[in-house]
Every structure is written in structure tokens, then in C-alpha cells.
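User: Here's a structure from my thesis project, written as C-alpha cells. My advisor, Dr. K., wants to see whether a designed sequence matches the one we expressed. Can you design one independently, without my sequence as a hint?
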């Protein structure tokens, strides 16, 4: 038996909170209804024993969402009802968290909620991009198409993440090793040199004084470094959740050396693919812009699309509106303008999406190849600084001893 916590309302509309034991989510809902309560939300409480299990999966991966989306799209296209689709997929889903969420969504839809609203109750499972695509499918009556789009996007995103992770393995290992060596030298090697130099009262170069000051500070105030670093990390993490912090963070994503252009291409590829699918499905252009903007994953691009939508609402061409935002490359603007003039906007958007998808793959390859020389250069500079700082005074010791 599992423990479930629920929020419900009685016949007078008063809110009721509680916990119950049931064998699954459906049984829990039936138990709450038997108490003449209307279920608002209900979820399984974390089991302490299960949470310690090494085999329990803690989150839903992109690969799980890809498989789920394709299964739902295939079943729905075959004419199976939405509720039966969710029932079938939840029963064969290997991830227990995703299976539980799908069952919860199915029961919520049975109670009269829209699929979009039901999925919004599980933000840890269904991200904003997926919900935006589902909303577009519900609105335009093309849920199977938008689910396929979601599967394609998540599939490419998962592949991109794997490539980036593979490219980051070598730099991460090297940086960690370098950081460990530097800490070891500051803690054990530099103090020995400092003691020797102090005995000769030798005049030390600025580099050596700086290195010794860093060593002394680390040994004396290591607790401040650790505590301050942890507090700074928590504070920065909280700030990045604010509206201002999120905008600054996403703006930084677009300005980063090497990665900035890649992040912009990924956001634009998501936008054009979703927008093209929505236009092809017959969704009104303003609503298609609103939905596709949410799939970019970057609030800066999202705000630019919202500003463009306001100009389109005022009668301006879409290409002109996007150009005014200064966030879209000229090629994207020109191709959208050509699509508007020819009446084949959806086809042109698909071409843009394919172009950027290929370009992203090339960019990841170039990034992978450029990592090794960059890391070698960074480590070389660090090692050179430490060696010069430690051994430059040695060349003057002979002169000091003779005196």
C-alpha cells in the first residue's frame, strides 16, 4: 500500500487536506470520492525506503518523453480515444514516475479538465515546451501531429545533450584534476616554499607574493571559502528564478563564447519547427506564435516573439516584426518574408528548421574539436603561473646567500 496526499473540497466548497493509503492513484481517488469530496489534486507521497533505493528512477528523462509522445501519437492517430491512449501508455511505461503522472492526467481529464490543464499539474514531468505543443494540438485538433513534433524535438534535444555531455567529459575531468592539484599545492607545497624564502629574507616578486597570499588565505579561512561559495551558489540559484535573473541568465546564454551562437540556433530551430507545424495545422498565426514562443526554452527569444506578435496584430508583416526585435538572423527573416509573399510560410519554416538542425550538428562537432586545445591552453597558463611564482625567487637565492 502506498500513501497519497490530497487536496479536495466538500459539498460546501470548503478545502480539505489529508492523506490516505491506497494501492494506486486510481484507488486513492475512488477512496477520496467515497468520502463525498471533490478531488482537486492528489499525489503519491515520497516513500523513504524507496527514495533510498539505488534502482528507483528519480526523474523523467527526455528519452522517456520521446517514447511516450510517439506512442500517444500513434495510438491517437489510429482512432483510439484519448483516455484509452493514456491508459495503454501508462500501463507499459517503464518509468514509474511518468506512469503515475500519465494515470493522474487521464483521471483529471475524466473529471472534465483539458489535457493541457491536467499536464500543468505535473510540471516536474511535463515541461513548458511539451505543454505548449499539447495546447497547440488541442486547440487546432491536431494533437497527433503536435505529439510527433514534440517527440522529434525531444529526440534531437536528447541527442544534442548526449553529444555535448560527451564533448564535456574530457574538459570536466581535466579541470577537476587541475583544480585538485592547485588546491594540493596551495595547501602543502606553497607553505614549504614560503618558509624557505622567509628564512633568507629574500625580496619576492609580485607573482610569488600573490600565490603565497592565496595559500595563506585558503589555509586560514577555508571555512569562509566553502560557506561563502555555498551561500553564493544558493543566492545565485534563487536570483535566477526571478524574472530579472532569468532574463539575465538567458541573455548570457546567447552571449557566451562558443556556446552563445549554438544556444540561439537551438532556440530558433525549436521556434520554427513548432511554428511551422502549427501554421500547417491551420492554427491562427497569433496563437501559433504564442504557443511556439514557449517552446524556445529562452525567455529573451520568447519576449522577442511576443513583441513581434503585437506588431503582427497591428497589421505588420511577420518578417518585418521579427527583424525589428534584432534577435533573429537575417537569413531567418528573409526566408520568412519569402514564405509570406509566396503563401508557403509553413514550407519555408520547415526549411529553416532543417537548416538549423544540420547547422547545430556541425556546431557541436566544431565545439568538440575546439575543446582540447582550449583546455590545454587554460591548464598551461595555470601551470606556468604556479611554476614561475614558485621558482622565480630561486634564481635570486644565490645572490641573497652571497650577501
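Assistant: Designed independently from the structure alone:
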Amino acid at each position: 500500500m502506498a500513501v497519497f496526499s490530497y487536496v479536495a473540497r466538500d459539498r460546501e466548497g470548503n478545502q480539505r487536506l489529508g492523506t490516505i493509503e491506497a494501492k494506486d492513484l486510481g484507488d486513492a481517488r475512488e477512496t477520496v470520492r467515497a468520502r463525498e469530496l471533490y478531488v482537486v489534486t492528489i499525489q503519491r507521497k515520497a516513500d523513504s525506503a524507496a527514495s533510498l533505493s539505488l534502482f528507483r528512477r528519480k526523474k523523467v528523462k527526455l528519452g522517456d518523453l520521446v517514447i511516450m509522445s510517439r506512442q500517444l501519437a500513434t495510438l491517437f492517430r489510429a482512432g483510439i480515444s484519448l483516455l484509452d491512449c493514456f491508459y495503454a501508455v501508462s500501463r507499459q511505461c517503464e518509468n514509474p514516475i511518468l506512469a503515475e503522472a500519465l494515470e493522474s492526467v487521464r483521471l483529471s481529464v475524466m473529471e472534465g479538465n483539458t489535457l493541457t490543464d491536467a499536464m500543468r499539474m505535473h510540471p516536474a514531468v511535463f515541461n513548458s515546451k511539451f505543454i505548449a505543443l499539447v495546447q497547440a494540438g488541442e486547440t487546432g485538433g491536431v494533437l497527433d501531429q503536435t505529439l510527433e513534433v514534440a517527440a522529434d524535438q525531444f529526440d534531437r534535444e536528447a541527442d544534442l545533450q548526449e553529444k555535448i555531455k560527451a564533448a564535456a567529459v574530457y574538459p570536466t575531468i581535466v579541470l577537476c584534476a587541475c583544480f585538485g592539484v592547485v588546491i594540493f599545492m596551495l595547501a602543502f607545497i606553497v607553505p614549504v616554499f614560503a618558509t624557505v624564502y622567509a628564512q633568507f629574507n629574500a625580496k619576492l616578486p609580485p607573482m610569488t607574493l600573490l600565490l603565497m597570499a592565496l595559500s595563506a588565505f585558503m589555509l586560514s579561512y577555508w571555512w569562509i571559502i566553502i560557506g561563502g561559495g555555498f551561500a553564493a551558489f544558493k543566492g545565485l540559484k534563487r536570483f535566477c528564478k526571478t524574472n530579472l535573473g532569468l532574463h539575465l541568465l538567458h541573455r548570457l546564454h546567447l552571449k557566451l563564447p562558443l556556446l552563445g551562437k549554438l544556444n540561439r540556433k537551438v532556440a530558433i530551430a525549436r521556434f520554427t519547427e513548432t511554428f511551422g507545424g502549427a501554421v500547417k495545422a491551420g492554427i491562427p498565426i497569433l496563437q501559433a506564435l504564442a504557443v511556439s514562443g514557449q517552446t524556445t526554452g529562452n525567455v529573451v527569444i520568447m519576449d522577442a516573439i511576443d513583441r513581434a506578435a503585437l506588431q503582427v496584430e497591428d497589421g505588420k508583416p511577420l518578417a518585418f516584426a521579427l527583424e525589428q526585435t534584432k534577435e533573429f538572423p537575417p537569413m531567418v527573416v528573409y526566408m520568412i518574408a519569402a514564405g509570406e509573399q509566396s503563401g508557403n510560410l509553413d514550407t519555408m519554416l520547415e526549411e529553416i528548421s532543417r537548416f538549423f538542425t544540420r547547422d547545430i550538428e556541425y556546431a557541436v562537432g566544431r565545439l568538440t574539436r575546439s575543446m582540447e586545445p582550449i583546455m590545454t591552453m587554460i591548464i598551461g597558463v595555470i601551470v606556468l603561473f604556479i611554476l614561475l611564482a614558485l621558482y622565480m625567487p630561486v634564481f635570486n637565492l644565490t645572490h641573497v646567500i652571497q650577501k
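When you compare it with your expressed construct, this may help: Confidence is low (pLDDT under 50) at residues 47-57.
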